[in-house]
């Protein structure tokens, strides 16, 4: 079954991550992502660029996986630096995944509802649902949701790092 997924682009895999255990680490085993050819600022073009960027972050990373009390923790590194991390309920696949660049969270994926949040620095940049892109636009979170996303980006990944002995 896995070879079937290898024929898809990284952009398709991100939207279909529920079929690949909902982790950002699924990209580490795939063929190199293909850069989007679009150059405009349409929703579809921006979406493709976002997906490509996240796939590139994990390209060629070394994956680690641990299961502790029914929770699966995954970490992926390139040259010793963490590029993605996730935790999920082993049986359900529900959880959260983080992508990192230069030690900062650049995206968070909530597996239960498909919410993907990207960041510019420590601030929310975009929010969208990867399970349902039919509306063709990014969502605008209210102040409380924005604070929740930014707090998760600031420290939500620490429990994953702790499992792997990272401070």
Question: Could you name the key traits of this structure?
Answer:
alpha+beta, seven-stranded antiparallel beta sheet, 167 residues, 7 strands, 5 helices, single chain, globular
What secondary-structure arrangement, pairings included, does this model have?
Elements: H1 2-6, H2 10-15, H3 43-58, E1 62-68, E2 71-78, E3 81-89, E4 95-101, E5 104-110, E6 115-120, E7 123-129, H4 143-156, H5 158-163
Structure characterization notes:
- With 167 residues, the chain is α+β, with helices and mostly antiparallel strands.
- The chain has one domain (2-163).
- It has helices spanning 2-6, 10-15, 43-58, 143-156, 158-163; strands at 62-68, 71-78, 81-89, 95-101, 104-110, 115-120, 123-129.
- A 7-stranded antiparallel sheet has the order 1-2-3-4-5-6-7, sandwiched between helices.
- The longest helix has 16 residues, at 43-58.
- The chain is globular.
- Residues 1-23 and 25-29 have low confidence and may be disordered.
């Amino acid at each position: 079954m896995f070879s079937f997924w290898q024929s898809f682009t990284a952009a398709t895999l991100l939207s279909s991550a529920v079929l690949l255990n909902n982790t950002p680490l699924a990209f580490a085993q795939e063929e190199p992502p293909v850069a989007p050819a679009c150059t405009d600022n349409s929703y579809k073009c921006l979406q493709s660029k976002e997906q490509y960027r996240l796939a590139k972050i994990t390209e060629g990373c070394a994956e680690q996986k641990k299961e502790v009390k029914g929770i699966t923790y995954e970490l992926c590194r390139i040259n010793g630096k963490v590029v993605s991390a996730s935790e999920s309920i082993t049986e359900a696949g529900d959880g959260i995944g983080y992508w990192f660049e230069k030690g900062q969270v650049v995206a968070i994926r909530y597996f239960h509802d498909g919410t993907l949040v990207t960041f510019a620095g420590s601030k929310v940049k975009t929010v969208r649902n990867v399970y349902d892109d039919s509306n063709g636009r990014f969502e605008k979170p209210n102040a409380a949701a924005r604070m929740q996303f930014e707090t998760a980006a600031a420290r939500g990944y620490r429990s994953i790092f702790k499992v792997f002995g990272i401070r």
